[in-house]
Amino acid sequence: MAEPTTLLILGASGDLTRRLLLPGLGSLLAVEGDRRVRVVGADRSEMGEDDWRARVREALEEAGAAPATVDALVGSTRYVRGDVLDPETLRELVGSLAAPLVVYFALPPAVTVQVCALLEHLELPEDTRLALEKPFGHDGETAAALNAQLQRVVPEERIHRVDHFLGIHSVLNLIGLRFSNRLLEPVWSNRHIERVHITYDESLALEGRAGYYDKAGALVDMIQSHLLQVLALFAMEAPRVLDAEEVRSLKAQVLRATELWGRDPVTASRRGRYTAGRVGDRDIPDYVDEEGVDPSLDTETLAQVVVEVRNSRWSGVPFILRSGKALREVDKQIEVVFQPPRLQPKGLHDTGLPDRLLLELRPGAVTFDLSMNAEGDPFELEQKHLHAELGKPRMTPYGEVLGSILDGDQLLSIRGDMAEECWRIVAPVLEAWRENRVPLEPYPAGSAGPEGWDVIPGLDGEPQSVSRHSQDHPDDSPDDS
User: Fold this and answer.
1) For the segment 161-180, what is each residue's pLDDT rounded down to a tens digit?
2) Where are the domains of the chain?
3) Beta-ladder partners of 167
4) Given 121, 226, 349, 385, which residue is catalytic?
5) Is 226 a catalytic residue?
6) Residue 302: in which H helix or E strand, if any?
7) What is the rounded distance in angstroms from the CA atom of residue 44 to the CA atom of residue 222?
8) From the CB of residue 348, how many other CB atoms can be counted at a distance below 10 Å?
9) Angle at which helices 416-434 and 140-151 pack, to 10 degrees?
């Protein structure tokens, strides 16, 4: 049998490991119980070996891993207390581990960079892979510097920049929906599609994440990373095979062609911040009154950016990327709005509503809203909803991503040039926001957000409505975050 893969988690006592990594690993092993993996945790925290094993066992059992699988992994796991920024401590730790090795940085970005600088001077086990969380730098220049630093440790093909959003089952289903049926493939272009909304609105507020979120905001937290990756999957050309390098090259091609709508960050972007309000049965304080928030940072909790993919397939189609917190409605979906028919027979009474395809991101489902004859009167048209639930995910998003990393498969990882392109796209917006050229609009928690965000100026010289809520939909899903 092949040697087990060693998963070294730096920052093992932290929240990311407890809430996402260990449960994700448990969901992976619940599906692939014969996978051989050894987990080593390392951190400065004074966690005892028994406490660490208990934490690992609890996460794996709650995820549904088989008892024999849990016992085997818990029996081989260990926790190393020490400062990984100390060169000798890190040398001793890495030297004690067998290949193949995955080093997972569950650390703040600045600490990750420092550890990588130390790893550069160590002799690493054969087939060592690096896995790190976003943000990948805080602008294009630092992203390029981080890429250069990582590539001095291991080659690019052994670097996994983690975007767990790409492990969401319905995002992966986008590949099948896009390329595996004759109905959609011919109409997937600017000849038939009027606009595309990629939205991730939540009813959750800050929820104690000020340490990270107050410095990132909605734009960097969601749009610069996750939603641009979904855009790239949505708009890419057909791959010959689902090979990591081919798919990522096609996605990078999309990102290189992506620019702000009208190339104007002021008209192509909006930002807002929630004030005190009520979401469901919860009272939400003003964002600036949340614990740990620095009001002087002017952090946005709702962001919208309109971009265009300037190539022959997509030129002229606005892609509206939006994400926010403490909103009334949970909206996690891709909405494709089709152009109206070129010619409709006289005598038919139009609904005035566009045909739409809705791909829900959580939970997974596909809905077509199509105009067709109404019941009772063949000359009246009405909108019909054709709805299909997608298959349930095999495992959590982190389980999907961890499985790929342990296999050395980069299909769900972000390539270095893609990370830099994402920063390039949003850089003018960040600059305009720092210079206060785009107002920070308040909206009460529990509302739909500020008014007027459903209009994009500058399209063909006239304002154009791009409302996400052209009609009410009966299948709105509850918040499952």
Assistant:
1) 998 888 777 677 888 888 88
2) 5-133, 166-393+415-465
3) none
4) 226
5) yes
6) strand 302-309
7) 30
8) 14
9) 150
